[in-house]
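Subgroup meeting minutes
Present: P.N., E.W., G.H.
Scribe: E.W.

1. P.N. recapped why we're keeping a running log of single-chain structure predictions: easier to compare across weeks, and new members can see raw inputs and outputs side by side.
2. G.H. added today's entry (209 aa).
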Amino acid sequence: MDRLKMHTPDRAEENFRKLSDLFPDAVTETVDENGVTVRAIDKDVLMQEISAQVVEGTQERYQFTWPDKKKSVVLANAPIAKTLRLQPQKSVGRDGTPGSIDSENIYIEGDNLDALKLLQETYLGKVKMIYIDPPYNTGNDFVYNDSFKQDVYEYAENSGQTDEEGNQLVQNTEGNGRFHTDWLNMMYPRLRLAKDLLTDDGIIFISIE
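Output recorded in log:
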């Protein structure tokens, strides 16, 4: 026998759950008027998720962030006008025969960010395991094809280490954070797209030795 619910649905809770499922990066915490930490939706992050431009926002919050992170969100969400093309001459069959395409395995050659975007349509939520061996953040200049690379002056301004006149506001700039920014801007969209490919019980392994 079904029990009657003695109250109407909590629409706010339902909407929060829906937004959490669609935009997990927008879930954060804040402190209410009673000083209690409660979960919330970061409106700046939510606006960035549905915008193809960088959305400005200065609200303080608990989060892992870095200069130019919003550009990485734009990059992860941006569509591409590319497609995967089979090359039989480079394929190898199950028995090792060159030029055969009877194998269920595929090898994709190209930029991994483009490949991850192209795989979304066919393999979204279907991949059981992902293993990646990313380039290491050695603290030196990091070179890759995306257009996020910053010189030392641009990074210092974006990260608040200099004022509008270029005067230094931070004493120690020897451990240059721009190298971390370059690496994080490269890793973020790729990890995000890779996560979307995983099944509910899928797992990702990352080599960081």
